[in-house]
Amino acid sequence: MLFQIFSSPIASGAQLFLLIVCILAGLGAGLSLIDFRSTKAPKEVKRK
Which residues cross the membrane (predicted)? Predict the structure, then answer.
């Protein structure tokens, strides 16, 4: 699907814009996941 988008005859500025948006969305998702994992409180193990 991405290959069809980037090989379609649209302006190169639009292709560059879509590429930047995809990269930023991927980075944002990755950073959010890393931040969530680092701020999540570890589960305490209850001992009897």
Answer: 12-34
